[in-house]
Amino acid sequence: MAFVGLGRKEGMRATVIAELGSTLYSGPGRPREGVWLFAALVLTAAIPVLLLGGWMAYITADQERSYARKAATEALTQVAHRIEGEISHELQVAEALASSAALDQGNLRDFYIEATRIVAARPLWETAALTKPDQEQVLNVLRPLGAPLGPVKDIESFNAVVRTQKPVLGGLGPYQAVIGKQLVSLRVPVIRNDELRYVLTIGLLPDQIGMILSQAGLPDGWVGTVIDAREKIVARTPDNNVSRTGATTPAVQEAMARSGSNSPRTQTREGVDVETVHRALAGTDGWSVHVGVPVSELNAPVSRSLRLLFGGTAASVGLAIALGLVIGREIAQRRRLEALQSAAALLDSEKRGALAIDAAELGTWRWDLATNEFSGCNRFCTLLGMPGGRSGETRWSADRIFAVVEPPHHTALTSFATECLESGKLSSVEFPVRSENRGEYWLRAAGRAEGQPNRRHVIHGVLFDIDILKRSETERSHLLRRLASAQEEEQRRISRELHDQIGQTVTGLSLGLKALEQGLAKGSNEESATAQVRWLEQLAAQIGRDIHRTASDLRPTAIDDLGAFKAIQAYVAEWQDRYGIRVDIQTFGRDNSLPPDVAAVLYRLVQEGLTNVLKHASAGKISLVLERKFAALALVLEDDGIGFDPEAVGRIASSGARTSGLGLSGMKERVALLGGTIAIESAPGNGSTIFVQIPLEASETIQ
């Protein structure tokens, strides 16, 4: 934008100078001394102007080059965050697989089936293998169970896991003849009773890592590369053929040694000169991602500045001639120059504002109520679900805009426009629209009308998408209503139990006491009175049991007496006897120092999870794992039932459909209140698995 403004300014200046020069030499003849003096004046005036023009061109080119480097750094950060997030997620799934209950009793067949299912569901996974600490491989899901397996690959990362007993991300491993490709090893220790029993190895596909890299949004012509800790290229874009890659080039090694954001200029295998920026990937034990920007893009501002310098040189010579002839017209020319500079600064400011608006995904619009016409940018058209124009701004009639808004909200838009015109202050309005791709979604428009109160007729504003916020508010509102409904249902249940069970038993006790009183008054025999008293004792004991069960449902006292894990074990044992469904429960770590709110939520999560399995899963076996780690509490609940579609259940919950209980929404809300995470893996016919992670404060973990 700055180059465009300067180019127009120099062109206008050259035109004026040409006209002035023509006028200067069209007059009567001048003495030779005057000509030389005039030439000296021209040269003297041209020299500083040339120097200033060159300096301005250099500064402008350097600024443009800095913008390009900044864009490369931002793109690098985006790519790094994307890859770090994917690797972190795969590590969580691998740790959950390492916590499988099948490995507690050494049941390799069940673990083989479970690992095969998870590998098939993870696009980034190629295989999963289990190896003893002495490097003896016991299974690999790509080979039949019990088949002989070859030696361990990437022995360096394997020894690191055995030594540290922590997850390790290895590098691009050697070519594996059994699998037919190179893999990246993700190794997780399998620890039971503080002993390292196995090392779980997940083989990650470099091609899939390259797919993540290619989908990270690098501009066309830029080169992205992911390098492991041993300086091997794991993935590259646009060419993602890892088999052609080799050791890191000297330029990359020098960049890593500098530990800076910029590396020396190098050349890609396609013969393109690039300057690279790099960043280390967190949690990857030395991996890094590099982004190469073509030098041609960085040098484009320099070429433009040279052209600007040549044009400025010609304009400066003409300006010196004009200064020697007409001082007054030069003053006017300087004023005109200042006006052009102000316009260029204004255009640059508008460009920065447009960039900020694009980064915030806002749509700018203008509503002229005098002509009843809207004009807006392409983002404005996209938010409304209408086709945009090629020029960057599209005009629509107000009736066309109102046609995409739901009719009940037309009045709100009209009131919004009236308020903007009358107050001249910023105002906003929310309304839903409907499109073929997204269905119904919510938008918010904010705008203000400038000018005198009686002369305002144009409203300028922005439009942004608030559908996610609206859906979150709606989902929370529905959840609160379901919580209230569940609370009311619980109160009714307690009332029925008090009336139907305890009330009837108390009535029987009262009648029995009355009968005993009458029998004693009539002098009944001692044997009959004794039998009556024993029957009354049984009624009193039944009342005590009913009251204890009701109190336990309201607040399990076993949590305070036994701790969360033992209380859950007792509840699971009672639940298993009552409903006849087998439940395998495994607990790891101490729970006596859990905060009361965390213990209560953990107990309720198990209750709700088992209730959901009983009502909906038709399962024959349930696996429950509770583990307290260093800074987190983990819960894994798995069943072999009919399964379900988690996305379909999420859509039903978000639509506000009435359910019989809190269900998965209630579990998510309980976990969210403690700052934890919950993940659900299920498919129709394949059972379901729920993974819960609840963070613990540092003071709670050091016990």
Structure description:
This protein has helices at 2-25, 32-98, 108-121, 155-164, 206-214, 250-258, 295-325, 327-359, 378-384, 398-403, 410-423, 467-522, 526-554, 558-562, 564-579, 596-617, 646-654, 663-673, 698-701, and strands spanning 125-131, 137-140, 168-172, 184-192, 195-204, 223-227, 233-237, 262-267, 273-280, 288-294, 363-368, 373-377, 393-397, 427-435, 439-449, 458-465, 582-588, 621-628, 632-639, 677-682, 688-695. The protein is an alpha+beta fold and 703 residues long. Among the domains are: 2-66 and 299-356, no CATH class; 362-464, Beta-Lactamase, CATH 3.30.450; 466-554; 556-703, Heat Shock Protein 90, CATH 3.30.565.10. Helix 1 (2-25) runs parallel beside helix 7. Strand 9 and strand 10 (288-294) form a beta hairpin. The model is unreliable at 1-31 and 242-261 (pLDDT under 50).
Essential attributes:
703 residues, six-stranded antiparallel beta sheet, five-stranded antiparallel beta sheet, 53% helix
